[in-house]
Amino acid sequence: MARFRYVKHGVKRQHGIIEWVLPLLEQISAIEGVDKVIPASIFHSSVRRINQPELRFQRETHSGFKLLAHSKRGIQEIFVVVEKSKKEEVKDKLNCREC
């Protein structure tokens, strides 16, 4: 039971999350084939000038994908754990969301 202590709606919430990105993470966790969405490190950046927050697809990992959430003040890594058999389908859906 303690293993799922911080997971709510498929998104791990043990650490901080950039405020606008939570609804997007819940939408991603609802995609068929997605097991978990894990927000990771937040890097603060005062140099980055961005008008709108955005979520970008960065790369494929062994267990799924790595996304980056960019906001005015920081960048957050987001890991998406996917079933191996549905990896291509999920990747297509993430690209359709312009991640």
Q: What characterizes the major β-sheet?
A: 4 strands, antiparallel
The tally of beta strands, per DSSP, is 6
Mean pLDDT: 80
N- to C-terminal separation? 33 Å
How many distinct folded domains? 1
- Spatial order of the strands forming the largest sheet: 3-6-5-4
User: Portion of residues in helices?
Assistant: 10-25%
Structural class estimated from helices and strands: alpha+beta
**pLDDT under 50 segments (min length 5)?**
none
> Which H/E pattern describes the elements?
EEHEEEEH
Query: What's the helix count?
Result: 2
Beta-strand residue percentage: 35-45%
Can you walk me through this structure?
The structure is a single chain. This protein is α+β, with helices and mostly antiparallel strands. It has one domain. Helix content is 18%, strand content 38%. It has helices spanning 22-29, 87-96; strands spanning 7-8, 11-12, 34-44, 54-60, 64-70, 74-82. The protein has a 4-stranded antiparallel sheet, covered by helices on one side. Strand 4 and strand 5 (64-70) form a beta hairpin. It is globular. The termini are far apart. The model has no long low-confidence stretch (mean pLDDT 80).
